[in-house]
Design a protein that fits this description.
Length: 191
């Protein structure tokens, strides 16, 4: 007689969750997770607290209340390298485009070299001022959001896992980087 094997349903993925007190600790955990095989797509954060409150149709008094709530809309974690690259694009693009427009204007109007330089540099400076203002607004909004989340209890981070090994690895990494209330939440809570 052959060996009788019992049917076992496939194990559904679960996830790990943690709260962080600082953005630096959270970013260190994200970097560590990514270096240990977790894709960026498996790591997420809640959207801004005001957007969460709107989505779940109730006020948010503590981010700890959101840890295991599947209704909370999530977004990918933007790391420091991505933010730096986006900032550089936001700064350099308007400067480049306005300087290019200045060069086209100067060439189209037959300006002397010194006049063309004044127009090109002047428009580049206008682009730099505009880009600086735009970037300062983005940075200010980000800082406000981080302050708001900290006031609600910390910075929340989710990690989607697909195996017991990944669960253990995720929990260990989150704890290693000063994660608080580190725990698993079940497959029914995943999006």
């Amino acid at each position: 007689m052959g060996v009788v094997r019992r049917y076992r349903p496939a194990r559904k993925p679960s996830g790990a969750v943690a709260l962080f007190d600082t953005e630096e600790d959270m970013q260190a955990a994200v970097d560590d997770l990514e270096s240990h095989g977790f894709s960026n797509a498996a790591i997420s954060r809640p959207v801004a607290p005001s957007e969460v409150a709107s989505a779940i149709k109730q006020p948010v008094f503590s981010v700890a209340d959101l840890e295991d709530d599947a209704r909370v809309p999530r977004e990918p974690v933007d790391d420091n390298n991505s933010r730096t690259a986006i900032t550089m694009v936001c700064v350099l693009t308007p400067i480049y485009l306005l300087m290019l427009a200045g060069a086209a204007f100067a060439a189209g109007h037959g300006m002397q070299t010194w006049q063309a330089i004044v127009v090109i540099v002047g428009l580049g400076a206008i682009g730099m001022i505009g880009a600086g203002y735009f970037v300062s607004r983005i940075v200010s909004e980000r800082r406000s959001r981080i302050r708001a989340e900290k006031a609600l209890g910390g910075l929340l981070l989710w990690v989607r896992t697909g195996s017991r090994e990944q669960e253990g690895r995720a929990l260990e990494i989150l704890r290693r980087h000063a994660g608080r209330d580190v725990h698993l939440h079940g497959p029914a809570l995943q999006h």
